[in-house]
Design a protein that fits this description.
142 residues, alpha+beta, Rubrerythrin, domain 2, 3 domains, 4-stranded antiparallel sheet, two-stranded antiparallel sheet
Length: 142
């Protein structure tokens, strides 16, 4: 769907209109509601979403999608979905990943995932020569 810029000559409001170029006559200024005095600078239209000339490539797949409908159908067939942060399905997925990380940390001999992360941070500090905010170096040989 193309997105066009507009400027209202009555109040000076600037913004974007998403829709067909022919539908711009139906669009009025959101501030002053004046649809008669609209300026539509002709610039390259910005396209939102995949198109025939600009397909969307999804990482991890060997597919290109030329429309949102095609992408959504493919995602639904694969069992994928778009979730919000407060969606139960999303939270269940996060809990599942956390539980797997906890189980893996315990199987590696750590108390829990937090202990494993602290250990990894300490090991990284040792490798870089920084521990407890101090920089250690080997004594110089004379």
């Amino acid at each position: 769907m193309p997105m066009y810029e507009f400027e209202c000559l009555s109040c000076g409001e600037c913004g974007h209109f998403i829709g067909s170029y022919e539908d711009r006559s139906l669009f009025g200024c959101p501030s002053c509601r004046d649809g008669q005095r609209m300026h539509w600078p002709i610039r390259g239209a910005k396209l939102i979403g995949p198109t025939d000339t600009k397909p969307m490539r999804v990482p991890g797949t060997d597919r290109e999608f030329t429309s949102n409908r095609e992408l959504n159908k493919w995602a639904a067939d694969k069992g994928y979905g778009v979730y919000s942060a407060d969606d139960r399905t999303w939270n269940d997925g996060i809990d599942k990943v956390r539980n797997r990380a906890e189980d893996r940390a315990v199987s590696m001999g750590f108390r829990d995932r937090q202990h494993r992360m602290e250990h990894a941070r300490n090991e990284k500090a040792k490798r870089s020569g920084k521990t407890d905010g101090k920089i250690y170096s080997l004594p110089k040989s004379t």
